[in-house]
Amino acid sequence: MEVVEPHSVVNQDGSPCPDWGHLPFDVLGAIDNALNGRLSATSSVIEAARLVNRHWGRWGTEYASVLRISRESTAWERAPPGATSPTWEFMLDAIARKFVGVRSLTCVDISDEGMAHVGKLTQLTRLDLDRSYDVTNAGVEHVGKLSRLTHLDLSLCHGLTDEGLGHVARLTSLEWLALGCCLSITDRGVRLLGDLKHLRYLDVHGCCGVTQACLNELTEGRVAAEPDQS
């Protein structure tokens, strides 16, 4: 039997130099945790690892589980080769294709076009779209594909209406939902959430079209609701 030594780096004399390039991703993840000891350092370690080689690059993307992105992130203001202007959708498409281990995603000021890429992240359990003013029912339709979601924040998504809540009602694992200041939703849309058996928290502050009577129907015996206080 031939044994192939897992060495991709050699010394000047041609002898093999052991490296970590072939370690399994779970081992690399354990090393990262041991080196960091805190979440705040994770991103810098992953970024450094991605510069080493392709194997580490794959680990850097597959190991990342929490991402926060926004149009204000200057690191993403570079356009792909040949593009005439920076594209937010290009960045989201790259995330959907490469960051397959992401479980929690925060997107600030995303568009409906960007939501088409977010809908491909089927492993997501937490999605925060707070202050994504341009998201409409068409964008929220893609959220309805994320069957593992337990936490969803749609606060200040001004384009969301009762029709869009119909897509949210498909998320049968949902436990926590924020709809604060979604000005176009009414009792009719909120009642569509009645079949979400795991829902335990609902925030509708600033939603003038949602009445206390509707919340009483929805929350009876199971949901903690934050009503409109206006």
CATH superfamily heading of the largest domain: Ribonuclease Inhibitor
Contiguous helical run count: 9
Helix content: 25-40%
Shape, per Cα inertia axes = globular
Main location: cytoplasm
Organism: Ostreobium quekettii
Keywords: Ubl conjugation pathway
Pfam families: DUF7885
List keywords for this structure.
globular, seven-stranded parallel sheet, Leu-rich_rpt_Cys-con_subtyp, 9 helices, LRR_dom_sf, FBXL15_LRR, single chain, disordered N terminus, 230 residues, Leucine-rich repeat, LRR (right-handed beta-alpha superhelix), alpha/beta
Give your account of this protein's structure.
The chain has helices at 25-36, 42-50, 54-63, 88-98, 112-118, 137-143, 162-168, 187-191, 212-219, and strands at residues 9-10, 16-17, 66-70, 104-108, 126-128, 151-153, 176-178, 201-203, 224-226. The chain has 230 residues and is an alpha/beta fold. It has 2 domains: 19-64, no CATH class; 67-226, Ribonuclease Inhibitor (Leucine-rich repeat, LRR (right-handed beta-alpha superhelix), Alpha-Beta Horseshoe). Strands 3-4-5-6-7-8-9 form a 7-stranded parallel sheet, with no helix packed on it. Helix 1 (25-36) packs across helix 3 (54-63), helix 4 packs parallel to helix 5 and helix 5 (112-118) packs parallel to helix 6. The longest helix has 12 residues, at 25-36. The chain is globular, with a radius of gyration of 22 Å. The chain starts with 8 loop residues before the first strand and ends with a strand. Its main location: cytoplasm. It comes from Ostreobium quekettii. This is F-box/LRR-repeat protein 15-like leucin rich repeat domain-containing protein.
